[in-house]
């Protein structure tokens, strides 16, 4: 099983990226995972697509096709999802060969500095999943609040949250195997 990890926050010190790196280690115990770089993508523009899509669209579509499932890690931006994740969903859904998300499995893990753990961003992202026909893991729900307080001085995630993230990641791998 090969799982693609998509991180909505593009900043270097992203907490969601740190969570993705922890999940990658868990998945790599018996499967394969990669963090997919989406930082280079321009916003989707249909004028740049079609018979001769720009190189960035072709490149990300080829990358996305490699995976059996995906975990999306999203912060919450103004009570919604990270625009970079919506952008990659749009690009993948308009592949000239067809919607490359169709029937694949996915999960949303969200974390934010606020008290709701990115719940609004998490649910906004799930709305896009319905239309592109991603099969979504519903349980466990992963919302991690006050993420900025959950790493120690050595950048290790505190035990309770790390255990929750590890168990949630393993649940997704089980879900992916069952539904792929």
UniProtKB/TrEMBL annotation:
InterPro entries in UniProt: Flavoprotein-like_sf, FMN_Rdtase-like_dom, NAD(P)H-dep_reductase
GO MF annotation terms: FMN binding; oxidoreductase activity
Record-linked Pfam families: FMN_red
GO cellular component terms attached to this protein's record: cytosol
Domain NADPH-dependent FMN reductase-like: 1-147
Name of the molecule in the record: NADPH-dependent FMN reductase
Species annotation: Anaerococcus prevotii (strain ATCC 9321 / DSM 20548 / JCM 6508 / NCTC 11806 / PC1) (Peptostreptococcus prevotii)
UniProt lineage: Bacteria, Bacillati, Bacillota, Tissierellia, Tissierellales
